[in-house]
Amino acid sequence: MQFNSNRFGIPEVTRNIIAINVLLFIATIYSGNTMYEYLALFNYKSNYFQGWQMITHMFMHGSFTHLLFNMFGLYMFGSRLEQMWGAKRYINFYLITGLGAALLHTLVQDYEITQGLVNINQPTVGASGALFGILVAFAMYWPNTQLFLMFIPVPIKAKWAVIGYAAFELFAGISGFQAGVAHFAHLGGALFGFILVQYWNKNNRNSFY
User: Fold this and answer.
1) Active site positions, annotated
2) Whose CB among 36, 73, 109, 185 lies 3.0–4.6 Å from 101's, allowing a Cys bridge?
3) Is the pLDDT confidence value at 3 over 50?
4) Reduced to 3 states, what is the DSSP secondary structure of residue 38?
5) Rounded to the nearest 10 degrees, what angle do helices 128-141 and 183-203 cross at?
């Protein structure tokens, strides 16, 4: 396998996604957070909703920690997928899983709005949905890779780490644990990532390439 990387070992698309996220985070700080009104994802019933937010929200972040963890995950797991798939398939995967995350999140949010659980103008930001799709794809291709996680003192195989993470997100989303986190967006990214990898592997074709 030939790896197309720069001298830091980060493939082109992954490197550019990280750069865009960092630049937009800096711009958001200097704009006094007004960029959230235009680039964060609002519910389609909100007066703040714009179509482009389905894409732009996945390049925005609410805090430095949020940005750091997502970009580190993108670097660690996305780089390997890009090196295997190539740039075109990888960016399509990233955008499709991000859109899938937004779709499931919006469907659940609709229900929460009707129940008075969330404000219709509550924005959503982050690459976490697309990142969860990347985690699922990584675990499907390299299920037995040993991962070292901060909150687990022993190495754990990728397949069990991702399954455990998804189970936690489902529990948190249903129970309301960690309010303010878009748990169903994470699950949407995971679901679309799983379906897309299965489709590509089953058909062995270059659809969405």
Assistant:
1) 128, 186
2) 185
3) no
4) helix
5) 40
pLDDT for 163: 94
> Which residues, in sequence order, are bridge partners of residue 156?
147
**What sign has the CA pseudo-torsion 73, 77, 78, 83?**
positive
Give the integer Cα–Cα distance in Å for 119 and 29. 24
**Structure tokens given for 160:** 């069990």
* Most confident range, picked from 89-93, 120-124, 150-154: 89-93
Query: What's the rounded Cα separation, in Å, for the pair 98 and 105?
Result: 11
Answer whether 39's CB lies under 8 Å from 56's CB.
Answer: yes
Question: In which residue are the tokens 């997100």 written?
Answer: 169
In angstroms, the CA 55 to CA 52 distance is 6
Average confidence (pLDDT) over 67-91: 96
Q: Is the pLDDT of residue 203 over 50?
A: yes
CA 95-149-97 angle, 5° bins? 10
Report residue 208 as tokens: 């969405």
For the chain, domains (ranges, CATH) are 12-203 (1.20.1540.10)
Q: Residue 124 has what DSSP assignment?
A: B
